[in-house]
Design brief:
- Helices cover 37% and strands 35% of the residues.
- It is of the alpha/beta class and 120 residues long.
- The chain has 2 domains: 1-64, no CATH class; 66-120, no CATH class.
- The strands form 2 sheets. A 3-stranded parallel β-sheet has the order 1-3-5, with no helix packed on it. Strands 2-4 form a two-stranded parallel ribbon.
- Helix 1 (67-75) packs across helix 2 and helix 2 (80-96) packs antiparallel against helix 3.
- The longest helix has 18 residues, at 101-118.
Length: 120
Amino acid sequence: SISIGTGRATYRGLVHVPKHLKNCKNNTECDALLINATSRTDTYPAITVRGTGNSVQHEASVSQVSAEQIFYMQQRGLSEAQAMSLSVNGFVNDLVRQFPMEYSVELKRLIELEMEGSVG
């Protein structure tokens, strides 16, 4: 998830493995990017495993675009909006690569438009 301004992202995940199931595997990832200090993210995983031989994992990470990152990119000739867009696109890159090309291109454009209106 990506939060900007006073935005707040909430992830609620439910994994339930009943007793009669065996050798189930689940890996839940919840990564969040905070664009500024006023945005928030919350993660509420609910995991219940009743059977045996099952493997269930949950991981969550929260990162924030730092002023130092933006400054570094600006020193290399990028505008603040371009630097922010590059940071956000880098964050979503692994997910976007799984999309068909036309969706990936459109999502990149939407992120660039959103970042242009959010900085400065």
